[in-house]
Amino acid sequence: MRLPQRPVGPRPQGAAPCPLQWNEPLQHLLKDGLISSTTPESISKMPEPAISLSRPRVLSGMRPTGKLHLGNYMGALANWVRLQDQYECYFFIADLHALTTDYADTSNIAPSTLEVALDFLAAGLDPKRCTIFVQSWVEQHYELPLLLGMITPLGWLERVPSYKEMQENLASKDLTTFGFLGYPVLMASDILLYQPDFVPVGQDQQAHVELTREVARRFNQFYKPDGKEVLPEPKVLLTPSPKLPGTDGRKMSKSYGNTILMTDPEPVVRQKLKTMVTDPARIRRTDAGDPDKCPVGDLHKVFSTPETLAKVYEGCRSAGIGCIECKSWVANALVQVLEPIQTRRAGFSEARVMEILEDGSSRARHRAELTMQEVRAAMRLTPAAPAAK
Ligand code: TRP
Ligand code: SF4
Asked: Which residues, other chains included, contact 134 with Cβ-Cβ below 8 Å and sequence gap of 6+?
């Protein structure tokens, strides 16, 4: 396959339009084709990627945490799917990042990487329209962190908000390592290797992208071949994510064990909803409740039609409906969202996923190498003899 490529060289700064953000209820998503109807068959019949050299570039990644949940879908993937048509997109599975916390037991990383890749494809990321790759398969992700590590002051790393916080939260793991402290350098490298215009991330990752900009700025100050900027500062593209509670009412998160997975079959979705917490003031069927104080109500706001939502408000506040009925309505909506995702997932064999990842990784390698050549030259590393190249 022909590699999507942009010419190396100075690019107009600040010229890229800001990608549209998605944060509307489900109906709009369906209408807008956000919940895409791409199937493995239609992918293989699609024409070669229409990658235009002028499209602004977008890069984002996700740690391989195992099967992804609705929070991951609504908070990131659904937005990525939308970006792939307008931007030159690189999306990757950050398996090297998993090592920063899971170095003592790495057995889950590879299986999780495959699951996440499947979830990317299930969500509708299309390997003909974007580049999907595995971080550890692209050698440049090992090279740039070493070079950027040379110029990153320790104080910057120690001040990253998640640093102390994660050490405290994951007290069972020894995170007093070089690798864990250097995590933001790894992330800066992931980003800068692709010289992207935009990095779509959630708020929790914003500080890391800010640090990336500072690292880039410092690099550009030290190393200015012919006054040229080698590492353009990417812009954060904040993904506004709807409030998505898990079954216990807290934010949906794998670490709380309160998730609804993208792969959960209908009976599991319905069962999980049955046990979901509701407005605590509604103890008996005859008590009135308030959907604004109920996590099930929050799910309705994201997934239900305006008509259903109106029935929920009316019925809950007047004790006209029971929670069981109310939950079954939200389950219906969830099943409707998940159905096409699960059908798409079932169409990809493991062999096909590996092929997609290999192809994507070779495209990523190619793009990353263009940046590395500029970086090595800018830093005046000893050039190899031409014959050895
Ligand atoms: N740190 C991100 C997370 O934990 C994953 C990630 C790694 C990433 N490298 C990145 C995201 C580069 C955006 C860009 O979710
Ligand atoms: Fe929550 Fe619905 Fe029960 Fe009201 S009726 S408390 S919104 S589950």
From this structure: 92, 93, 95, 113, 117, 357, 360, 361
Task: Give the amino acid at 189.
Answer: S
Segments of the chain assigned to CATH 1.10.240.10:
254-341
Q: Which ligand is nearest to the CA of 94?
A: 1
Q: Would the CB of 199 count as within 6 Å of ligand 1?
A: yes
Q: Are strands 88-93 and 198-201 parallel, antiparallel or unpaired?
A: unpaired
Contact 85, 56 (CB under 8 A): no
pLDDT tens-digit series, residues 58-68: 999 999 999 99
pLDDT surpasses 60 at 293 = yes
Give the pLDDT confidence of 165-180 residue by residue, as tens digits: 888 888 888 899 999 9
Residue 275 tokens read as: 């046990």
Two tokens at 99?
């090592």
Ligand 2 centre from 332 Cα, in Å?
Answer: 15
Output the residue whose Cα is nearest ligand 2's atom 8. Answer: 323
Domain 26-244+348-388 is of which CATH architecture? 3-Layer(aba) Sandwich (3.40)
Q: For ligand 1, atom 2, which residue shows the shortest CA distance?
A: 62
Quick one: 254-341 is in which CATH superfamily? Tyrosyl-Transfer RNA Synthetase (1.10.240.10)
Task: Kindly state the helix (H) or strand (E) to which residue 94 belongs, with its residue range.
Answer: none
Closest C-alpha among 20, 55, 14 to residue 239: 20
Q: Ligand 1: does its nearest atom lie under 6 Å from the Cβ of 61?
A: yes
Instruction: Specify the DSSP element, H or E, that contains 182.
Output: none
Q: Beta strand pairing status for 88-93 and 235-238? A: unpaired
Find the 243 Cα to ligand 2 centroid distance in Å. 17
- pTM metric for this prediction: 0.87
Cα–Cα distance for residue pair 19/17, rounded to 1 Å: 6
Angstrom distance (rounded) from CA 361 to CA 132: 7
Interval between CA 264 and ligand 1 midpoint (Å): 25
Interval 364-385 mean pLDDT: 95
Q: How many whole angstroms separate alpha carbon 319 and alpha carbon 12?
A: 60
Sorted by sequence, the CB contacts under 8 Å of residue 45 that are 6+ apart come out as none
Ligand 1 atom nearest residue 187's Cα: 9
Tell me the CA–centroid distance for residue 14 and ligand 2, in Å.
47
Considering only CA atoms, which of 238, 231, 168 is closest in space to residue 209?
A: 238
* Parts of the chain belonging to CATH 3.40.50.620: 26-244+348-388
Report the C-alpha gap between 168 and 248 in whole angstroms.
Answer: 23
